[in-house]
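User: Last request for today: this protein with heme C, please.
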Amino acid sequence: MRTLPDPPGVGREATRFAAALLLLIGMIGSIADTAPAADLPLPNNWQETGPNSWHKEYARPRAIPFPKADPYSAAKLALGRMLFFDPILSGAKIRSCSTCHDPGLSWADGRPRAIGEKQEMLPLRTPTLLNVAWTPKLGWDGHFRNLESVAMGPITAPNIMDLSEDRMVDRLAAIPGYVEAFHGAFGPGAITESNVEMALATFERTIVSGEAPFDRWINGNSTAISAAAKRGFALFNGKANCAACHSGWAFSDASFHDIGTARGDDIGRGRLFPNSVALRYAFKTPTLRDVARRGPYMHDGSVPTLQAVVDLYDRGGIARPSRDPNIRPLGLSGGEKADLIAFLQTLSEKGKAVEMPALPR
Ligand code: HEC
Ligand code: HEC
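Assistant: Here's the final one, the structure of the complex with heme C:
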């Protein structure tokens, strides 16, 4: 368990610093390639916080990681943005990736469960795409091994977008603007399934949460968040133990846990690892960036509000062998719950306009 964080301005413990350094080294080790910040649509403060920052582990990273197999290019980004917003990728031309991953709704859809091509409810809630560049395994149960491997899933699934690979390639090849854009990004003969995946993934990696009041506070502006939110942050790292899983600047360990909510055959990552006790009912720890705007919550949209989320953690969920050891009744007072919620509310950036591309026709 973590110790209570130091208040701002107070020197950090050596151990905390060492842990942060290791984290940083770990991150650099896993980053194959990074794009120059100047090329990317990033907020103004896109840089590491100064040397005096007391919480290196909450500092925003300096650059977006791009894998060697799919390096950044401006042409790929522009193409990926067009594909993401274009209903041409749905069989009936009625929905795009952005129908469910809506930038105006923090890149999700605000529904308990997604609605697919057949106007039927899917079994899962749409996750936000904020900070997916830093998420090694994608999907609530982590069954996608990288961002590139996600795209054809929704496109070809009959209940999500319902377009076969062949029809997709034919449609794109019939539009001169796309022929040109694929050629610019990948060279001759470039309209292929794999290039669609790479362009979409390049765009998705640039979906990064912007500066929130919490970041201004971490960067030393002591009035950026309320006293209640500061108490909430201490609880988050201390008594409530949330940071055991919601760790780092994006507030996710990108790992999988049973928090004691799912029931029946909704076993999450357990489906992939039927012999693991710990992975039964385990789902990916979601980022908490923009969380106050993204309800209802959880993989199945079963928890309507942040108050209900905090009440649930306070009760400790269903006690069973798979439940994570960090989940247990917390004994929070009403005031402490309110403080935690005040803290969670500091993680939303001010809404900013997202550039919608002109779609080639
Ligand atoms: C009908 C709504 C819908 C549409 C359309 C849709 N998605 Fe999703 N998306 C979802 C849902 C639901 C999940 C969760 C799937 C899972 O966990 O297996 C998801 C998961 C994802 C993830 C994983 C995110 C994470 O944090 O693990 C990515 C990436 C993604 N979608 C990208 C796309 C792209 C790219 C498109 C367009 C080609 C698209 N989606 C179209 C609903 C949708
Ligand atoms: C053992 C790891 C763990 C701990 C400890 C933990 N969480 Fe979570 N959290 C998760 C997982 C996993 C999910 C997703 C569960 C699901 O989808 O069913 C989640 C989901 C959430 C969500 C919903 C986010 C969304 O987009 O749906 C919020 C909000 C949240 N947690 C806040 C907290 C708070 C506040 C605490 C401390 C009181 C906390 N968590 C403690 C792992 C944890």
